Amino acid sequence: MTINLNQMGMDMITENETIDAVDLDSHDEKLADNVDGKEEKQEVGRVNKAVAFVKRHGLEFILGTGCVALSVVTIRQGKAIALKDKIISMQRTRIDDLVVLCEEKDAWFKALMSDALKHRSSFAGKCMVDRREMLNGK
């Protein structure tokens, strides 16, 4: 009994080659070994192609990765700067409020010292001297 393997879709056998049914099992083993060899060769070929591609385009990968990393850092720093600007703005508002509050306190303190001096308070006189020295930078 002879079987034409080309009719069964076996590509490893040439067009006119036929084998006996007894030899079919050994031929299947050879085909399986050959398929494993092809897969290994294909893997090695793929790895070699990948390595060659990386060698050709390595600088582009590095520059691209650097640009992406720099963009991420810039965006994060931009957010941090925006947050710091907001904090600074809030602090400036608070400082302005405190300046107004100090001016109001000073006005009340001047009125209190004036009234205390009218009532002959020696402590009011001492407070006025201290205030004058503070304003003169002593």
What's a concise summary of this model?
By secondary structure, the protein is mainly α. The protein contains two helices and two strands; from the N terminus they run E-E-H-H.
Describe this structure in words.
There is one protein chain. By secondary structure, this protein is mostly helical. It is built from two helices and two strands, in the order E-E-H-H. It has a two-stranded antiparallel ribbon with strand order 1-2. Helix 1 (24-118) packs across helix 2.
Major β-sheet strand ordering:
1-2
Secondary structural class: mainly alpha
**Overall pLDDT:** 78
Number of strands: 2
Low-confidence stretches: 1-24
Strand content: under 5%
N-to-C CA distance: 123 Å
Biggest pleated sheet: 2 strands, antiparallel
Label the overall shape: rod-shaped
User: Helicity, in percent?
Assistant: over 70%
| Estimated radius of gyration | 46 Å
Order of helices and strands: EEHH
Helix run count: 2
